[in-house]
Amino acid sequence: MSGLTHFDAKGDAHMVDVSDKAVTSRIATAAAWIRMEQATFALISEGQAKKGDVIGVARLAGIMGAKKTSELIPLCHPLPITKVTVEITPDAALPGLQIEATVKTTGQTGVEMEALTAASTAALTVYDMVKAVDRGMEIGGLRVLLKDGGKSGRYEAK
């Protein structure tokens, strides 16, 4: 299992011991999108969804998702998150919404999983809020755009 830190010498899954790692400032940004019918896009863009402000609720859900990551992903460490931003931008070309989540911490391990969880939770919330009018929505493009801090240094998606 060379290179996979979540497995021990026997190949069993375990939580990585980060106690000897340096405490550094860390940041990660992740993105996703949700594609929908043009009528659904108009409904959200015009603020006419029956359940309310879809983008505002999805933004809050993304923030909450980042904070709950260690409860959802079995081997993630609970982290002292210092900042979460979730930007949701209407994109008429999809049609749909572009989602970008950035998470910061000062700690001993990175926040990529928290950023990914924030972006996916925001997308799932959009789906939940308007599924009554568009069950065919598609969520995709979930990926890390940026990771910085710690021993492994900086990563930026191409």
TrEMBL record:
Keywords: Lyase, Molybdenum cofactor biosynthesis. It catalyses: (8S)-3',8-cyclo-7,8-dihydroguanosine 5'-triphosphate = cyclic pyranopterin phosphate + diphosphate. Its EC number is 4.6.1.17. Pathway: Cofactor biosynthesis; molybdopterin biosynthesis. Substrate binds at residues 75-77, 113-114. Catalyzes the conversion of (8S)-3',8-cyclo-7,8-dihydroguanosine 5'-triphosphate to cyclic pyranopterin monophosphate (cPMP). This is Cyclic pyranopterin monophosphate synthase. It comes from Alloyangia mangrovi. The gene is moaC.
